[in-house]
Amino acid sequence: MLLLAVLRHEPGHGYAVIQRLAEASDGAFDLPEGTIYPALYRLERAGLLASREVEFEGRRRRVYEITQAGEAGLAEHVREWRSFSLGIGRTLEAAG
Amino acid sequence: MSTDPIDEYVQRLRRRRWARRDDDRLIAEVEDHLRAAARTLEAERGMDSEAAEREAVARFGNPHHLRLRLLDPTLVVLAVALTTAIVTLIAGVVAWDMRFAIPTCPPKTICYLAPPSDGHLHPLRAEILWAASALGLTVSAMSALLHLRGRRVTSHR
């Protein structure tokens, strides 16, 4: 969900995804960087992301972007997460 | 021999190629990632080139772990289930063949020495071994089916 979220408005390569995650979460998601690629590959295989190669400083660089299915999946995950988060909050409030 | 930490890391990754379709792509992406990370470390923290590369490699993690994470969980479960099924089947066949191994054993049994050894052979009916073998095969098949079903349900969410 978080990977889709950080790619929602702008395509990016793997390192950019890591940086956006760390920045957006204020360092809370400062992940081991190698973990990003298996996750990106799985999302791409699931059709939620698409990738293409672009030229960058004389090198080929792979850039990921969210697909329509990814947008729909993200919206669904966000709805689920908000509902879950709301439920937890209410439970904790009720428990004092 | 190169002392460039990123080159060394990429070489380690190449040595661990598993003939995956994505191997070349992954290696190119990892190298690009590490060089971008090293440049950022140099610019933002004022590290020298080699220290920045070492830091970038350390942050990226062990190439072996990267490979393990790339394995398709479905293939892993199916491989384990298939191996269990084959081993169970072979054990069943061997057990069946062994029923005549000890001439003093009653027909359709294998014999074993019960601990503590009392010097006597105890017969075990071959049907029990076949039942255990069939159970092993069923469990293997069910674990594979349940995994695939769970995966299908998850993918529809």
| Percent helix range of chain B | over 70%
Instruction: Kindly report the average pLDDT value of chain B.
Output: 74
Structural class of chain B: mainly alpha
The protein's oligomeric status is heterodimer
Task: Report how far the terminal alpha carbons of chain A are from each other.
Answer: 31 Å
Count of individual beta strands of chain B: 2
**Low-confidence runs of chain A (pLDDT<50, min 5 residues)?**
none
What's the average pLDDT of chain A?
88
Gyration radius of chain A, in Å = 16 Å
Strand composition percent of chain B: 5-15%
Low-confidence stretches of chain B: none
Shape of chain A: elongated
Strand content of chain A: 15-25%
Helix fraction of chain A by DSSP (H/I, runs of at least 4): 55-70%
Globally, the shape of chain B reads elongated
How far the N terminus sits from the C terminus of chain B, by CA atoms, comes to 50 Å
Tell me the strand order in the biggest sheet of chain B.
Answer: 1-2
Main beta-sheet annotation of chain A: 2 strands, antiparallel
Report on this structure.
The complex is a heterodimer of chains A (96) and B (157). Chain A has a two-stranded antiparallel sheet with strand order 1-2. Chain A is built from 4 helices and 2 strands. Chain A has 96 residues and is of the alpha+beta class. The radius of gyration of chain A is 16 Å and the shape is elongated. The model of chain A has no long low-confidence stretch (mean pLDDT 88). Chain B has 157 residues and is mostly helical. Chain B is built from 6 helices and 2 strands, in the order H-H-H-H-H-E-E-H. Chain B has a two-stranded antiparallel sheet. Chain B is elongated and about 80 Å long. The two termini of chain B are 50 Å apart. The relative contact order of chain B is 0.09. The chains are: A alpha+beta (96), B mainly alpha (157). At the A-B interface, helix 2, helix 3 and strand 2 of A face helix 2 and helix 4 of B.
